[in-house]
Amino acid sequence: MGKLQAIKRDETAEPVRLSDRAEENLQFIRETIERSTHFTAVPGYGGALMGVTAIVATYIAAQQIYLRDWLIVWLTEAFLAFAIGLLAMWQKSKIAKTSLFSVPARKFAFGFLPPLFCGVAITLGLWRFEHYDMMAPVWMLLYGAAVVTGGAFSVRIVPVMGWMFMAIGAAAFALPASFGNILMGASFGLLHIVFGLIIARRYGG
Amino acid sequence: MAKNLAIKNNGESQPLRVEKAAGQVSESLDKLIHDRTRLGMISALAANEKMSFSDLKNLLNASDGNISVHARKLEDAGYVTCEKSFRGRTPLTEYSITADGRVALEQYLNHMEALIAAMRNV
After folding, report:
1. Is B21 an 8 Å CB contact of chain A?
2. Cβ separation of B43 and A33 shorter than 8 Å?
3. How far are the Cα atoms of A52, A129, B49 from residue B95, in angstroms, in the given order?
4. A144 touches A172 (CB < 8 A)
5. Which mean pLDDT values do the consecutive 10-residue runs of chain A (205 residues) have?
6. How distant is the Cα of A29 from the closest Cα of chain B, in angstroms?
7. Exposed/middle/buried for residue B22 (C-beta within 10 Å: 0-12, 13-18, 19+)
8. How far is B8 from chain A, CA to nearest CA, in Å?
9. Does residue B113 belong to the interface with chain A, where contact is any CB pair within 8 Å?
10. What is the dihedral angle through the alpha carbons of A24, A26, A30, A36, rounded to the nearest 10 degrees?
11. pTM of this prediction?
């Protein structure tokens, strides 16, 4: 036979005010909406354009004799791609009438920026000790990690692209250093073009 | 019976005024979406064009049965529509909010705000 247990009532507990309950309901609605929305301003066409500039950078970088010049080419490309990405995101969010400072956008940024910051710091370290060969794999791995972590708050296809960057980055460590430049073209160039066009087609530009 | 419910003040006591305001809001409140799971579902669908059954389930941390029952209630009220298809070989159930559902959510938000305003004016 089951035991009966008296329900204890906390007689001293304050009754919940109606307005508190109403505010709690509004808060619940706000939080549900925030959690259910993704950052959809990841630029598709902008990403594809970043890919095109990376292909050009791959070609120019391959012509360089000195590693220092090779580094300058890729750093220039990084700044250019960053500017294209920002501009395209701003444009896409404007068309979609969403804010670049919304909760999903901020989550994307907070996920995306830490691995990118590590990439900058490690690049400075590698430059200081003249380990140029290590740069390409590190860039692909950390950019991939940034896309995966930021992409967790975006549409599903974004983290997939990040994982592919990481796979190519890991492969670059296993292959001879001479493959570094071509793999940069394959990842920053081709992956950006392919995934950029998919995002543009499926997620509105 | 409650005695000495309130001290009379300008003909109508404060707690009575609050009860009246709360009562009015409560009467016109849409009980269908007042339920937490249904409120969560309709709020999420208002912010997204479509959401799959599993997305709603994960978002609201609810069981299959729970989502299914509440979705049916919202569907019967004409607040959401359900679309069944296949993604590859896997069945896919997607929900979207209707115009009536959007109006119901807006009214619910207005009710909550009215209730907060009424209590603040006490």
Report:
1. no
2. yes
3. 38, 56, 9
4. no
5. 48 64 89 80 90 97 94 95 93 79 83 95 94 95 96 88 97 94 96 94 79
6. 6
7. middle
8. 22
9. yes
10. 90
11. 0.64
CA proximity to B52, closest of B102, B105, B96: B96
| Residue A101 and residue A93 in contact, taking contact as beta carbons nearer than 8 Å | no
Closest-approach residue (CA) in chain B for A33: B44
CA distances from B99 to A13, A25, A37, B55, B108 (A): 42, 22, 20, 21, 14
CB pairs < 8 Å spanning A and B: 51
Q: Which residues of B touch A27 (CB under 8 A)?
A: none
Model confidence at B20, in pLDDT bands (50, 70, 90)? low
Q: Which residue of B has its CA nearest to A25?
A: B112
CA atoms lying within 13 Å on the CB side of residue B121: 11
Closest CA to B48 of A178, A133, A203: A203
**Distance (Å, rounded) from C-alpha A177 to C-alpha A179?**
5
Query: Which is nearest to A185 in space by CA: A54, A70, A89, A61?
Result: A54
CA distance B19 to chain A (A): 10
